[in-house]
Design goal:
By secondary structure, this protein is of the alpha/beta class. The chain has six helices and seven strands, in the order αββαβαβαβαββα. About 40% of the residues are buried.
């Protein structure tokens, strides 16, 4: 968290990228599964501040990276083998449930990778399955970080990123498919609200209710 604080200071004061958060009141008081849009490296930092000490589901291959990967392996995160097929789903449920029981919110990027602003990929079911198996709320998150910090782009654009947190979805009585479809519908609809210019919509986003 010290590293997160330093990184956020540098992002704000050197890159001149600020952010605002809508829907802070939707964050549950109990551990939850956070299902977030993924457009840049920015959210991998800031989500740990918004969702205190969040644990991430990530590909285990990152452990091979010198220093960064070694440090990652020592954190209470959820590393999975993405080539394990159906076993990867079991890994997410088993290890993710353990982190939730330890009190950590668990962050999953359901599209599996960073996507360009204004586009989407198939929403994978792993995060929804984890919420169902653990019996905890699933919280959808939309954001437009890619408009300022594009994937693999050296130059960053100054501005204010919007992160919007949706109402928590209670898994009781739902299937993993139900949870996943509700998450996808909320996120994609919210993306059209916070980035209307990318979807041919001229409607302006509502003012921020809470700023982190």
């Amino acid at each position: 968290m010290i590293w997160v604080a330093i990184a956020m200071w540098l992002i704000r004061h050197v890159l001149r990228i600020d952010y605002r958060v809508l829907g802070m009141e939707n964050i549950p008081k109990v551990p939850c599964v956070v299902l977030s849009k993924h457009q840049s490296a920015w959210e991998t930092i800031v989500l740990q501040r918004v969702f205190d000490c969040a644990s991430y589901v990530y590909k285990k291959e990152l452990h091979w990276l010198p220093f960064f990967g070694w440090g990652l392996a020592m954190l209470p995160f959820v590393g999975i083998d993405r080539n394990a097929g159906k076993d990867a789903l079991v890994q997410v449920a088993t290890r993710g449930k353990q982190r939730l029981q330890e009190g950590y919110p668990v962050v999953v990027f359901p599209e599996g990778t960073r996507v360009a602003p204004g586009t989407k990929k198939r929403y994978k079911i792993g995060g929804a399955y984890l919420a169902l198996q653990a019996g905890v709320p699933a919280v959808p998150v939309a954001l437009n970080s890619g408009e300022f910090w594009r994937r693999n782009a050296f130059i960053k654009r100054p501005g204010t990123i919007t992160m919007s947190i949706g109402p928590a979805i209670d898994p009781t009585g739902l299937s993993a498919e139900d949870i996943n479809s509700r998450v996808e519908a909320w996120i994609e609809n919210e993306m059209r609200r916070i980035s209307p210019h990318l979807y041919g919509d001229t409607e302006a986003p509502a003012p921020a209710r809470t700023t982190a």
